[in-house]
Amino acid sequence: MLKKLFLLIFTINTIVFGKVPQRAVSASQFTTEILLAIGAENQMAGTAFLDNAILPELEEKYKKIPILSNKYPSKETFYSVNPDFVTGWKSLSAPANLGTVEELNSNGVEVFFMKSLESSDINDVFSDITELGKIFDKEKNAENIVFTMKENLEKIKEKLPKEKIRIFPYDGGETAPFVVGGSGIGNTVIELAGGENIFKDIRASFGNGTWEKVLIEDPDMILIIDYGDNTIDKKIEYLKEKSPIKELDAVKNERFAVIGLVDISAGIRNIDAVKKLAKMFHNVEISIKGEI
User: Fold this and answer.
1) What per-residue confidence (pLDDT) applies to 16?
2) 111 φ, ψ to 5°?
3) What does pTM read for this prediction?
4) Three state DSSP letters for 92-136
């Protein structure tokens, strides 16, 4: 009897959670690019939260999908496209944004959060891409992307020098620097590229550091995260002219590197970001295959 009950519950769950989305909304750039890359564009009803320019090879697909908002759309706008699935930043499920998971589910919207949002393991990124492939019935496409990403990562590892350089990963902020912490994929990308994050001890993907620590650590290079209205030029101008670290060698000698927020957010760009940073950190040229 118990075995029959278990099979019934399993079957019900398979039906409910195995439904292939046809009206998906992506509320982050990294999930948008994953869905476009695996070929799910015809199953998308809207996108939101673009941090950087969309990948050129995905731009044609992207333009065909309604942009609901630059940030989170209102609930009215969100439900106007009759969504059956949503994914993106976990903050989408805040009551003031798109509503709690329970609220979304009660309105017929399945919710998927990538486990790599709260992980520093690059293998979780690969797993999430594969899982989205399964959800959207694009499993083979997703597997091909992951295979190439893994292959490219091994090529990069072979070329990198053993010594690491110390990196100050600066997102923004003046009273205190907002930085890449040690518990997310951003830190992993930095490490895979041969960098050592001076704020790796922060137990979060991003968090507040201190200018005092930057002064003490005297990093070899400053990695500036690019997104939003606070431009790279503004961030560099602040660091050079007004910041507490303006006398550091890395600042005075303009040892700045730049990477997009989407590049260090869990997604299809991560291995290419490792390649880019390896070039910036170590001046190493590495030839890899296109990921898409």
Assistant:
1) 44
2) -120, 130
3) 0.90
4) HHCCCCCCCHHHHHHCCCEEECCHHHHCCCHHHHHHHHHHHHHHC
